[in-house]
Design goal:
Elements: H1 3-23, H2 31-42, H3 53-64, H4 91-119, H5 126-133, H6 136-144, H7 148-163, H8 167-181, H9 185-193, H10 197-214, H11 221-235, H12 247-255, H13 270-292, H14 298-311, H15 325-330, H16 335-346, H17 367-385
Amino acid sequence: MTRGQSIAWTVAALVLAAFTIYSARSITHGFVSYYAASRLLAAGELGPQAYDDRWFGAYVQSVTESSIREIFIPNPPPMALMAAPLVWLDARTARVVWLVASLLAFLAATWALVQWSSSRGRTVSIPVTVLVLLSPAVFTNLRIGQGYLFVFALFAGAVVLLARGRDGAGGAMLGALLALKTSGVALAVVLAARRRWRALGAAAAVAVLLALAITPFIDWSMWMVYPDHVRAYVNRPASSVTAYQTTLSLFRRLCVADPVWNPSPAANCPSIGFVVPAVLTGGATLLTAILAARSRRPEPWLAAAAALSVLTLPAVAEPHFVLMGIPLLLIPLRPWELAIAGTLLIVPLEITAERFTGGWSVLLAYPRLYAAWLLWAASIRELLANRDAN
């Protein structure tokens, strides 16, 4: 890391530390979902009722002694492990510890990625470093106490370890991601394409072990109803709101009317609203897997997998886009790509997603989604440039 990079990283870290201190003063939604789930787990009361939004929201209010409500769905049961070390603390104190720990994990992960890029002969520019550290997604995670700074840290750890050829440890981190937040499925697909069986075996082992470890302490039927609750969650008309920066949300917004959530779509094309997103994300995953199988360098396929791990999720909001820091730090971007991606990642959603909510204007409401697709496309370009000719 150059002196300029170190100074930029340090200044950005101080800004985030100050914001963390400011954010720690109050209870918000976000963290309370993890805290309440862990409290239920510790009390032996975690079961299918957690997927009832009203029941879980009332429980959140009782354990936080606040008026804040949250939901547990669409998370798998092991998500309740994420705040388990904090259940002996009251909600406000636990939130402070959570914020500090998540910031430290994020800073360590970004440092590791920058160092890895430097070791491979690529200097990460100061604008990229600042964009990754000070993007709105990072501030949103710290403001509400969401868990995606921890997700970023696990994903970044998996990326660096896999790039170094340490498949056992890298796969273990991927397994934790799969179990806790069902994140990283695209990376597992790409690893299969590259026949990294040791990494996949470690990922499967860790994911299964976490699932087995938690099962004796929950109502086991929670596993049985989980898939149906996820499907129901994705099919909710509310999933088309522009706060969800997903391909599915965009096409549902354009094509599927709802008197409450989408009264003025651009067209009446419900079949397109569901089929096209599946074709786009499925095709992108298949293309990535095919090209990754012949890539000489690990960075392009790891970057593409990180972007796809967001693009393929059915419900993605601002906090998830912290993962875009991984392709930003792994692959070189042309000046125009960086300018466009940076603009799309920092433009306030208040003037895009919250303003353009009807008709064809909704095409202007999805800047984060477009940034993710752009970074995926840049990763594919690098894959094409680094593929093995044999």
